[in-house]
Amino acid sequence: MTALLFATSEAVPLVKTGGLADVSGALPQALTQLGHDVRVLLPGYRAVLQTLGSEMRVLAHLDLPPFAPARILGGTLPGGVPLLVLDCPPYFDREGGLYQRDSHHDWPDNHVRFGLLSRAAAVLAGEASPLDWRPDVLHCNDWQIGLAPVYATLPGGRRAATVLTIHNLAYQGIFPPGVLPALGLPWDLFRVDGVEYYGNVSFLKAGVQFADRITTVSPTYAREIQHEPLGFGMQGLLSWRSGDLTGILNGIDTEQWDPAADPLIAARFRATTLPRKELNRKALRERFGLEALESVPVAGVVSRFANQKGLDLLVACAESVLALPMQLAVLGSGDPEIEHAFRGLASKYPGRFGLQVGFDEALSHLVEAGADLFLMPSRFEPCGLNQMYSQRYGTPVVARATGGLVDSVTDGDQAVDGEAPTGFLFTEPTPEALFEAISRAVAAYADRRLWRRMQRAGMARDFSWTRAAGQYAALYQALSGEPGKAT
Ligand code: ADP
Q1: Which CATH number characterizes residue 413's domain?
Q2: Atom of ligand 1 at shortest distance to CA of 385?
């Protein structure tokens, strides 16, 4: 059993801007269920104080100059995991976003806000902790906790081993060198093998440099970030640390995404009642204004319209796809250019190309349940969730062979030991390659027995957090065998 401090800047259901919050809500809970002694450290944002306020009690006072004085409050996450809240009102108790004052401006004091969070995490993981609980491992997440492994290596006695997980390498926490005094860090750390990063300070780079182990959210993405272009400038350091870098595929919420119990779909079904999926397809067609065409499959998309998601490739080959024949149901929002192109297709092909612009959680469940095929032509995808939801809903996936998509979708060419494929992967980020993969899917769809096998193989996959938590637990276990260096 590992005593673990899981330090994060967001966690569902309290505060969320992205996938990090989902991981922070689910992984500590799954680890607790496996018998580990886990505590989550989270900033005392206004929303956290308002939700948990009266239930929390003061556990300790932290005086860590040059940062403002702070307190550690003790509470419980709604799932039952013990929560440590870093209460520092001048830093966190304010109106506005977690990281941004408004949609265009970061908070100008983000370096001290997350500098303190990192420093507090390191203190709670060390010998000088004011709590009567000591973790074996400090698990840091993204740039916001990137400095914790640096603080943990400063003189101060025995400390916990450190793990840094990169959920999104695109955000690196970059600040000018002048922030160092405000972070209480010595100037001699401003060097290539310290916190310096192309002339600035990067919290994430510092974490990658100093953490005992580094993980990211899929094995393939762990390899891809060691090279251009997906290394976003950090590929050199990441490949230098490749011996300490692993990828662990995220899990999904298998209760919220369960076709046998989902209240958001038209007809619930399981692997033994797959013909009921037809009722969901009917409802999907109605919602998207698609004609009821006999034996024409419907391909679904649920996505942010962003360059990362490769939807321009779909726009470029959509007319050929519709001629296969196939119908398309697209749900999403974002980049106005992609939206404009999709609107053009919807008006040119009414009844064949259905579009819903917006963010609609309930409708996304119906797309997963009602579509025959799900499309994810992403240029890059650290983990990706929709391909896992789709497989659970008996919907084979066409996906680009990148990141977590490679690790969670099995193409016929890779299937081993008689395992049925669950989708169709393509390599080149071109409309031709996407079209070729969709054509293969249409051919497979015509073979009803093969298609059923693919659907059932996807539905039988284990995408639970229990699997992922087991892999993290093995990593912690290996690390506790080599506890952090005494300094
Ligand atoms: P990313 O986090 O890069 O957007 P993921 O596949 O990891 O991609 O997760 C996206 C999540 O957001 C999924 O749960 C997906 O269903 C959901 N989502 C994206 N766009 C929409 C939308 N327009 N409506 C409803 N859900 C959406």
Answers
A1: 3.40.50.2000
A2: 6
Total number of domains in the chain: 2
What tokens appear for 421 in the block?
């494929």
pTM to 2 decimals?
Answer: 0.93
Are both 127 and 149 inside the same structural domain? yes
Task: Report the percentage of the chain scoring pLDDT > 70.
Answer: 97
> Is the pLDDT reported for residue 343 higher than 60?
yes
Q: Is the CB of 360 under 6 A from ligand 1?
A: yes
Q: For residues 237 and 330, state if they share a domain.
A: no
CA-381 nearest atom, ligand 1: 3
Q: How many Å apart are CA 136 and CA 159, to the nearest integer?
A: 8
Segments forming the whole domain that contains residue 384: 271-461
pLDDT digits (tens, 9 = 90+) for 469-487: 999 999 999 997 654 443 3
Does the C-beta of 307 come closer than 6 Å to ligand 1? no
What spacing in Å lies between the alpha carbon of 387 and ligand 1's midpoint?
11
Ligand 1 center–CA 302 separation, angstroms: 6
Per-residue pLDDT averaged across 416-430, rounded?
Answer: 89
Give CA–CA dist 433/411, Å, rounded.
Answer: 14
Do 223 and 80 share a structural domain? yes
Does residue 434's CB lie within 6 angstroms of at least one atom of ligand 1? no
Are residues 101 and 157 located together in one domain of the fold?
A: yes
Tell me if 69 is assigned to some domain.
Answer: yes
Does residue 246 carry a pLDDT above 60? yes
User: Using alpha carbons only, what angle is made at residue 152 by residues 146 and 154, rounded to the nearest 5 degrees?
Assistant: 120
Please check whether residue 393 lies inside any domain of the structure: yes
Which protein residue's CA is at the shortest distance from atom 18 of ligand 1?
A: 303
Q: Would you say the CB of residue 362 lies under 6 angstroms from ligand 1?
A: no
Closest protein CA for atom 1 of ligand 1: 384
Same structural domain, 336 and 205:
no
Residue 120's closest CA among 97, 140, 98, 143?
Answer: 140
Residue 413 pLDDT level (bands cut at 50, 70, 90) = low
pLDDT at residue 487, rounded to an integer: 33
